[in-house]
Amino acid sequence: MEQYLADQFRSLGLIVTGHPFEAHGRTFRNVIATLPGTGASVAPLIIAAHYDTVLGSPGADDNASSLAVLLETARGLKDRPLVHDVQFIGFCLEEENLLGSRAYAEQLRATNQPIQGMIALECVGYASSEPGSQRTPPGIPVPVPTTGDFLGVIGNEAAAHLVTVLVQAASGLVPALKTVPLLVPGRGEQLPDSRRSDHAAFWDRDYPAVMLTDTADFRNPHYHRPTDTVETLDFVVMERTAVCLTAATVRLATPKEQPAP
Known about the structure:
alpha/beta, Aminopeptidase, eight-stranded mixed beta sheet
């Protein structure tokens, strides 16, 4: 999968590099693809998805659905004249305590590297129109529909602007893509279920970050199981998510004084 992602990003004309890190006595690599901006800013916008899965699961929703949206977003942006750099990252070892994203976020903080923000895609391909198909994680302070046909947009307080732009992009361009936004205090310590992806590694290093999610096992009965296969995915929802993310990225990576064409 590492090589596949690198090849796909290169085919889009992006600049691809590897970010090696040590874990379990071995060297693993995150895949980083950069779409250069036209400005002088050194603070990129990061959009990421993890490319590992748990043993015994094909990982269609968790997390191939997110990789597909990541690649489609890159495809939609490759010819746009964005001002800020955009980094598309495939993180490794998310399923093992976020080791890949932690290594990268730690490197950014150690070198005082600023970023515009980070958006993590985590399980974005499963939806259900059945009443009662959605459960609510404990302690969530906002109303959560009982039908699992929405996209969760979960950010820390520093990422309020990211959440706003993403929700506005959905309502303005793809109103059929329902969203449920949530801002968590601090680093999400009081809501452990809000920390279950690579965005949490960035929260822990005091970066603004957001997770887009179908809520995983609070909706998807195939989560981390052998039945998490491509046949269970909703490609219409995935396409809508890519449209939303592409539009939001254009806005976030293009200052207001230089509106996107």
